[in-house]
Amino acid sequence: MPHFPRALSLAPALLTMSLVLSACSGGTPAAPVTEASPAPVAETPPAPPAITPPTPAPGPARLTVSADGHRLEYTDGRPFLYWGDTAWELFHRPNREDARTYLQTRARQGFTVVQAAALAEESGLTVPNAQGDLPLVGKDPTRPAVTPGNDPGDPEQYDYWDHVDYIVDQAASLGLTVALLPSWGIWVNNEPRLGDEPIFTPDSARSYGRFLGERYRDKPILWVLGGDRYPNTEEVRAIWRAMAQGIEQGVGGGDRALITYHTRGAKSSSQYFHDEPWLDFNMWHTGHCRGEQEATKLLADYKRTPAKPVINAEPMYEGHPVCHHVPNGYGDEVDVRNIAYWSVFAGAAGHAYGHRKVYGFDVYDGDKAWQKALDTAAVRQLGYFRTLLESRPMKDRGPDDTLVAGSFVGDRPVVAMRGPDYAWLYLPDGGPVTVRLGRTGGARVRASWFDPRTGTRAEIGTFANAGERTFTASSAGRGNDWVLLLEATP
């Protein structure tokens, strides 16, 4: 994805910052030093950042895995940030106009990926799509329901797969990559308690995968097997492997298809397929509970060998009942921010967002509720996060669990990532953090606070880049998260 430099918004500080300087390791702590706070200034929250829709990749450039194994990039070396939105029913529920509205909105908001299933979960084999078509003849994956022609004005020509083509092409025209699930797991796995209705064998999975690979071999596609299922038996794993083989055959080789696997909650594809050659990058599924220790788990995936990129593709959705239990309340913008920062600062090659009213396109809520849910504070705040991430090169940065003692551990940890001459620390509940300086190069370090809620930045000061120093944000508690920015300076 092209690099879109957008300056971080700077604002007068409304922060009370206390800074405590400790001596170098092993020394006697120095007396507390309190920085004078600036006078309060009335401030208007900044407008969301103007995000230029990505430019489609020119010529033959395709997505691949970086040489260090931790990132996605184009074959010509341009970085790609997986910034996904969840739209599982995109091919099944919306008509052409609604699909276009959705895609244009998400491109404008700065997303780079949309996640959608070809064989949808919600009656995807029995309830026709918005155009009145089903994907398969007789639920047979070796018989995709295709017809000659593709004129949308002629129902005899415009079939289910023509509609998928249209959405994939519309996404590509907006610079969006489709993370395409060939089938939701309900049609592959065999767990009656989840309502599974398996239709695949290894042979039919290979045939169906080859059909998809041939059809979309030249499109901006990331392939996502799975669909909310644990591949717990060898019989099921054999089907998914065969589907991956079919996709690779269809696109013209394993080097032309980036494939991953989407599990159920609280697990990663790495726990099932990490060492298999067809699995190019890993996917985490946080689930929809709090306290899932995403930072600890994502960091473990980041450190696996061989190194493979990892994405948290299903964190807690905004508007989703916490732990699937309404009395627990609903996922909110704080959950979205917390999990996004924990995941990316733990080394994820991007992140995905989801909203309960959007991903089903009125499966659960009628009257176009999904359109009303497209623009939320959480979406705008993810835009601020993307702006921060792209303010520095993605190459040569990664998680650092040595900057803060006890980081990356527990339900609400402080997490940090570092590049050659800077470090960023995420404090999910604000308050104080004691940092071990001297890891970013340079004799001095310039510190500032980044507000994840507004995208604003406030300078703290410049300090000797050695020893330990405690920085205290102006607020603390849930919803008072802050990012401490440290930049080396001569």
Task: Walk me through this protein's architecture.
Keywords: Signal. The chain is α/β, with parallel strands linked by helices. It has 2 domains: 9-44 and 400-489, Immunoglobulin-like; 63-389, Alpha-Beta Barrel (TIM Barrel), CATH 3.20.20.80. It is built from 10 helices and 25 strands. The strands form 6 sheets. Strands 1-23-22-25-20-19-18 form a 7-stranded mixed sheet, with helices on one face. A 6-stranded parallel sheet has the order 13-12-11-8-7-17. Helix 3 runs parallel beside helix 4, helix 6 (294-302) runs parallel beside helix 7 (333-345) and helix 7 runs parallel beside helix 10 (377-389). The chain starts with 8 loop residues before the first strand and ends with a strand.
Mind sketching the topology for me?
Layout: E1 9-10, E2 18-22, E3 33-34, E4 63-65, E5 72-74, E6 79-80, E7 82-86, H1 96-108, E8 113-119, E9 136-137, E10 140-144, H2 160-173, E11 177-183, H3 202-215, E12 221-226, H4 234-251, E13 259-262, E14 267-268, H5 270-273, E15 282-285, H6 294-302, E16 310-314, H7 333-345, E17 350-353, H8 356-359, H9 369-372, H10 377-389, E18 398-399, E19 415-419, E20 422-427, E21 430-436, E22 444-450, E23 456-464, E24 468-476, E25 482-489
Parallel strand pairs: 1-23, 7-8, 7-17, 8-11, 11-12, 12-13, 15-16
Antiparallel strand pairs: 2-3, 2-24, 4-5, 5-6, 9-10, 14-15, 18-19, 19-20, 20-25, 21-24, 22-23, 22-25
Helix pairs in contact: 1-2, 3-4, 6-7, 7-10
